[in-house]
Task: inverse folding
């Protein structure tokens, strides 16, 4: 049985890598082929130089992602059949027992993975993003962010991990149900405390100033019957020139956040339309549905782990030895390594559902704001964020959470009373 499981994992790993590389190369060829001319639907608004910059940015990201994929694959093999995880297990069992051992093992795996990822992260931030004019992060701010992230992870993650390990050991065969209830409660707690205490530690949030934007936003909230929400502008320009807007929190912690880059780039009417799109997600309960889906999947995964926890072939087939069967910390690490290999094939389904949600939110925005203004705002954002206008169709169907630019703008134009181009 261990040999069969090893073979199944090898097939899943190989299939995943080959498919991801093939899709990446398709994307590269398609974008490069269409680099020479701005698509006709955007030619009146986006210059050839901007279109070519977006193509070059997409190609550079794709190349880096292929390197990351190769390193990720080698790291998987090294941790499992390469013996790194078995060696870490042997080292920590000589120093700790129980929950302390489990925390040490999982923390060392995460730390080692983070150290290996760090050079690529530095390259992405300070070379790739800087090359295309997006990076505004300084080395000092990068280090400060990493230290803060580490501290938050320790303050929140370590107690959660300790509690889950304790539940796995102390609550019997249905530990996975108790662990799921804890995991769900933890995520809801983070949703509440993040905008109040965590996010302000990383960014400065300023109340949206009085003026046309605020007047439009407040009127929009009233039209959509969304009540009063706190409105903030975040200093996203400290780290990047990319623009965005988002909802966060729930209950009394609910707030709407605009990046300062978005405020500075779009007109008040366009900002209103972008917010109307975000309100569309809220109106259709997309966020609640996604959270419910995530919680349901996490319950299924934990139940599966409950079945595998005392299955010797699961451990032996991944190179850590049959004697480790029942080891809760090892089971968590191995499960976290293996599940993405099999879950990868569900990516097109979740991408499709996400694109459907985006079309619904656009339709809602056209109803309570302006389809023309939203289309114009999106074109600006495509240009400012160097988003390619010509993605490979298959790559896009597989990965993209948002519809391709041409499809989305065409959809908005069909909703606009004027029928005017963006």
Result:
């Amino acid at each position: 049985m261990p040999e069969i499981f090893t073979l199944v994992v090898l097939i899943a790993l190989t299939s995943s890598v080959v498919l991801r590389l093939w899709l990446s190369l398709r994307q590269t060829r398609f974008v490069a082929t269409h680099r020479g001319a701005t698509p006709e639907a955007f030619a009146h608004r986006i210059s050839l130089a901007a279109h070519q910059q977006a193509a070059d940015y997409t190609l550079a990201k794709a190349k880096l992602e292929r390197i990351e994929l190769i390193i990720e694959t080698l790291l998987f093999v090294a941790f499992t059949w390469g013996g790194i995880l078995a060696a870490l297990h042997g080292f920590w069992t000589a120093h700790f027992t129980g929950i302390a051992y489990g925390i040490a093992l999982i923390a060392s795996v995460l730390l080692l993975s983070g150290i290996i990822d760090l050079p690529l992260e530095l390259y992405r931030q300070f070379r790739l993003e800087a090359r295309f004019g997006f990076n505004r992060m300084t080395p000092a701010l990068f280090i400060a962010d990493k230290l803060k992230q580490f501290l938050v992870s320790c303050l929140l993650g370590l107690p959660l991990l300790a509690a889950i390990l304790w539940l796995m050991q102390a609550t019997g065969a249905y530990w996975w149900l108790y662990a799921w209830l804890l995991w769900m409660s933890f995520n809801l707690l983070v949703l509440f405390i993040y905008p109040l205490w965590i996010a302000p530690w990383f960014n400065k949030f300023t109340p949206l100033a009085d003026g046309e934007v605020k007047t439009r936003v407040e009127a929009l909230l009233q039209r959509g019957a969304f009540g009063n929400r706190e409105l903030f502008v975040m200093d996203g320009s400290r780290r990047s020139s990319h623009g965005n807007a988002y909802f966060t929190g729930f209950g009394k912690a609910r707030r709407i956040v605009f990046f300062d880059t978005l405020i500075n780039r779009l007109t008040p009417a366009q900002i209103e339309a972008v917010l109307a799109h975000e309100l569309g997600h809220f109106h259709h309960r997309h966020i609640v549905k996604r959270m419910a889906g995530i919680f349901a999947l996490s319950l299924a995964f934990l139940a599966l782990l409950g079945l595998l926890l005392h299955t010797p072939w699961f451990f032996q087939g991944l190179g850590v030895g049959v004697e480790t069967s029942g080891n809760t910390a090892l089971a968590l690490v191995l499960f976290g390594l293996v599940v993405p290999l099999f879950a990868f094939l569900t990516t097109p389904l979740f991408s499709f559902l996400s694109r459907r949600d985006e079309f619904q939110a656009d339709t809602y925005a056209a109803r309570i704001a302006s389809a023309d203004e939203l289309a114009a705002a999106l074109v600006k954002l495509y240009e400012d964020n160097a988003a390619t206008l010509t993605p490979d169709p298959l790559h896009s169907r597989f990965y993209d959470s948002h519809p391709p630019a041409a499809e989305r703008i065409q959809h908005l134009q069909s909703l606009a009373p004027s029928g005017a181009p963006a």
